[in-house]
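Give me structure tokens for this 288-residue protein.
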Amino acid sequence: MSVFKNIAIISKISDSSVKDSLDAVVNFLNKKSIRYFLDQNSCLLLKNKKETSIEEIKKKCDMAFIIGGDGTLLRSAQDLSKADIPICGINRGRLGYLVDISPNHIEENLESIFSDDFTIDERISLEGTILREGKEVSRNISFNDVVINSKDARMIELDAFVNDEMLYTINADGLVVSTPTGSTAYSLSSGGPILEPTMEALLMVPICPHLLSNRPIVINMGSVIKIKLSDNIKTNASVTFDGQISVPIQANDIIKICKSDITLKLIQPPGINFLSILREKLGWGFKP
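Here you go.
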């Protein structure tokens, strides 16, 4: 008997291309007489009126299938991880480093999962707090990255501190603070290294810095990072959490970033691991 009894199904918003995968998951669960709950978009795609809210899913479900790309998974993780609900991603996006199951192998992977043949890959999150004149104005979590950047293509000046010690002042388009999970996301596009997801490390990666000497740096996961905006900032800037939540910031604001107690539990069927995902997504080991 499977350890999972009540399954949530959450689908990518406004994307009919996920319907084939959604049908495959629902048909499998129906065949196995496994109870499931559909989010709003899944109901729309299936023309099913039995919609279940995220709050109800958090109370009723013990695992969730996310059908879409990494963005859909990260958006769902903001809520589900706080309820300690493990997640399994079915890839209907583009690259998909977090959504492990291919649309062509849904039934065989679900068969493994519901036969209790799977592993749980636990990923850390970051907690980002925005302080203005010493008062907290916003606090959010992220599993990939916290990004400070300009919204009007102008450079911003930032002072960066690690454990209250000055690291550097940069003039750049922004700064990415990334978990090992997020090292294959915005951080990688900005020139950062790929980190193995279970490493006890964080990444700080400048985005298009004015000085080429401002390079990515890997620091201890237990570090507390503080980013202070220049007092003469004249641009629209924001802090973005996993590309899902964006908070405007202004001159002299301080962004405090540290490891959170909340973790993301990813269910992985047999044969799926970080190195196999890298080989597939980045085309490593294939002759041109």
